[in-house]
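Hey,
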Amino acid sequence: MFKKTISYTDYNGKQRTEDFTFNLSKAELLEMNLSTEGGMEAFLQKIIAEEDVRKLVELFKDVIIRAYGEKSVDGKYFVKTDENGRRLADKFAQTEAYSELFCELATDDKAAAEFINGIIPQALAEEVSAEIAANTARDNVIDAPKSV
């Protein structure tokens, strides 16, 4: 779970600073991966290779909306819908806090990386980091100059 403090000016002109929470469970990440043709990694590589800003913007919005929710007091639940089944993110997306967050993520690579790393489960993040480190080490061994 990722808690983000956002300062913004509401529609009454009042300056506000509030904490907002975001999280994607392993199941949600798996669903995103399986529902994307070729998987999320291939999709991201394609966006980067094509420099498709429109798709990148859509992806940021989708991730923010999917991840937004409120942690229950007892910590058992990360609630993403209200008692009527409406997504809490739909209301959040109508605030200037959403606008501030979206603009920050779209223009600041570090903030975007921090957000993405923060919303995925810690165990999964550690697993991915270990896999990246192992692949990097393997690539370094493969690319190392051979002694004669």
